[in-house]
Amino acid sequence: MTLRLDIPRIETDRLVLRGPEASDFEPLAGFLLDRERSWGFGTEKNMSRAWRWFAMSIGHWALHGFGYFTMEWKETGQPCGITGIWAPEGWPEPELGWVVYDRFEGRGIAYEGAERARRWAYQDLGLTTLTSNIVPGNTRSIALAERLGAQYETTYQNVEMGEDYLYRHPGPSELGLDCDADGSPEAYA
């Protein structure tokens, strides 16, 4: 096994999706430690656990070649959330996930970042399908998944979160994307 961090830098009109940097830890930890905001993603109980999640996220990139991008607000250079493809041990298949930090909500950042990350996963990684796994009651994430064209497929037991709804995203051909790579979810598990 070769471990490497080869994280692309991807831009949208208002965002830069980039690899995590040390200075991204504090805003992420602020989210992870806030029970009210992070309950649907996974709340950490202390700063040490938040740090471990941050380090695990970087390790995910090294092991899989994909993971969560830091979303940076172009106008200020500030981290405003995370989005990307997540497939740790125990996940049913690669998942498109997103988080927007408190003072950046209401600007369409989650949609903009997640749509771009999904396109990257299909066109550059060659994935042919993605899900978003959403805790029941997380109506905002359900609404965003549906806005992205994902449809409810099943309810399952997530190894970390318990009961989860699995939403299936449209595939690359349904989105009209040209994809040359031959990648299946199994290749990245």
**Major beta sheet, strand line-up:** 1-2-3-4-5
Name the assembly state.
Answer: single chain
Average pLDDT number: 92
Largest sheet features: 5 strands, antiparallel
Number of strands: 8
Q: What is the number of helical segments per DSSP (H or I, 4+ residues)? A: 5
Stretches with pLDDT under 50, minimum 5 residues: 181-189
> Helical residue percent?
25-40%
SSE order, one letter for each helix or strand: EEHHHEEEHEHEE
Structural class: alpha+beta
Distance between the termini: 14 Å
- Using only CA atoms, what is the Rg? 15 Å
The dominant shape is globular
Beta-strand portion reads 15-25%
Describe the structure.
- The protein is of the alpha+beta class.
- Helix content is 29%, strand content 24%.
- It contains five helices and eight strands.
- The protein has helices spanning 25-32, 35-38, 47-64, 109-123, 139-147, and strands spanning 10-11, 15-18, 68-73, 78-86, 95-100, 131-134, 151-158, 162-168.
- The protein has a five-stranded antiparallel beta sheet, sandwiched between helices. Strands 6-8-7 form a three-stranded antiparallel beta sheet, covered by helices on one side.
- A hairpin with a 3-residue loop joins strand 7 (151-158) and strand 8.
- Helix 1 packs across helix 3.
- It is globular, with a radius of gyration of 15 Å.
